[in-house]
Design a protein that fits this description.
There is one protein chain. This protein has 237 residues and is α+β, with helices and mostly antiparallel strands. The chain has a domain of 150 residues: Immunoglobulin-like, CATH 2.60.40.10. 32% of the residues lie in helices and 31% in strands. Keywords: Phosphoprotein. May play a role in vesicle trafficking. InterPro entries: Ig-like_fold, MSP_dom, PapD-like_sf, VAP.
Length: 237
Amino acid sequence: MAITGRQNPNAEEKKKLLCPFFWQRRTTTASSSKPSFARSILPARRRLRLDPSSYLYFPYEAGKQVRSAIKLKNTSKSHTAFKFQTTAPKSCYMRPPGGVLAPGESVFATVFKFVEHPENNEKHKLNKKSKAKFKIMSLKVKPGVEFVPELFDEQKDQVIVERVLRVIFLDADRPSAALEKLTRQLEEAEAAVEVRKKPPPETGPRVVGEGLVIDEWKERREKYLARQQVDSIDSSS
């Protein structure tokens, strides 16, 4: 006689009853693999803040070399090396092409580009994207490490692509907010270059002649004693 109100266990329940150890191990393995998978699909955290953040603006002057500027700031807690790459190396270059920034440090980079003469009424390309692109990469480094391009080849797995910037041409004869900001950033970039050219202030003893070190305080004391001797001779005579 069939017993009503009772159902047979399904296939999954049978597996649990027959192989409890296998089922528990399978569940534990699947749950432990979820965080690592989630970490693998998350985008890498950026180390630099860029201004402008998406485009490089250039004044349109056909047949001339024009300039753009971008500010990079290290927002991470470690020293970070940065490097520029471009899809148009024959007509573009950057100054500096790379460097190392301490935490919180900023730098202005100047980008140079040669604008070719228009072929098919290229004036219509103003305020539109150009084919040229600039890629900015970053790499975490130890304090004291100097920038060399080979750093990014030696540690490819640790390199982050911060941003790929597109080029936009601006009408140099028509005032705009973007053009005003570009002019201001170029002035700040030039001022930063002049500051870097100045020699660091002297904090130690002066070096005079061929390696002769003179302590300024000792020099002043000797001059003072010499004046005292002259005064005593004059008073005795």
